Amino acid sequence: MSKSLAIWNDLGLGNYLVFSSVLQYTIVLFFIFQFYKRYKEISVMDNAKQLMKNILKTRKTVKYYVIFCLSLILISFLVMAGGIYLNEDPLSALGNSYDIEQLNPEKLKVTLSLSIVIMGFVVTLVMGFIYFLLYGILLKKLLKNFKELQDIDV
Question: How many CB atoms within 10 Å of residue 97?
Fold first, then answer.
C-alpha cells in the first residue's frame, strides 16, 4: 500500500477515497463524451457565426471541467482537514512519532486542520489563477480570429 493511501486509511477516510475516485472517473468519462461531441460539432465548413457558437459551447464545457477539477482538489483538502481534526492521534496517522506531551492535542488538531484548509485554498486559487490567465490569453486570440472570420464572411 502506498504511503499516501495509508495516510487516508489511518485518518479513517479510506471509504471516502474509494467513493470520490468512482465519482471522479464517472464524471471524467462524462466530460470525455462531451468533449468528443463538441469536437464533432466543430466544422470548418460552417459559417463564422455557427463556428463561433460551437467553439463557445466547447469553451463552456472546458470551463465546467476545470471548475470540477478545482472543486475536487479543494474538497479533498477539506476532507483531509476534517479527518485530521476528528482523528484521536493525527500525528501518528500522518506518519510522525513525535512525543507531544507538552502540546495540547486539541490545539494541535486545530492548527493542523487550519493549515491544511489554508493550503487547500491557496493551491486551488493558484491553479485557478494560472488556468484562467492562460485561458484568457487564448480567448483574446480567439476573439481576434473571430473578428477576422467575420470580415471574411461578410
Answer: 7
**30: its cell numbers:** 462524462
How far is Cα 1 from Cα 31, in angstroms, rounded to an integer?
A: 30
Residues 6+ apart with CB under 8 A from 136: none
User: What pLDDT, in 10s, does the model give residues 97-147?
Assistant: 666 666 777 887 888 889 999 999 999 999 999 988 888 888 788 778 777
pLDDT value at position 99?
61
- The 3-state secondary structure of the chain reads CCHHHHHHHHCCCHHHHHHHHHHHHHHHHHHHHHHHHHHHHCCCCCCHHHHHHHHHHHHHHHHHHHHHHHHHHHHHHHHHHHHHHHCCCHHHHCCCCCCCCCCCHHHHHHHHHHHHHHHHHHHHHHHHHHHHHHHHHHHHHHHHHHHHHHHHHC
- Other Cβ atoms within 10 Å of 109 Cβ, number: 19
Q: Roughly what angle, to the nearest 10 degrees, separates helices 14-41 and 48-86?
A: 180
Position of cell 485530521? Answer: 84
Q: Which percentage of the chain shows pLDDT scores above 90?
A: 31
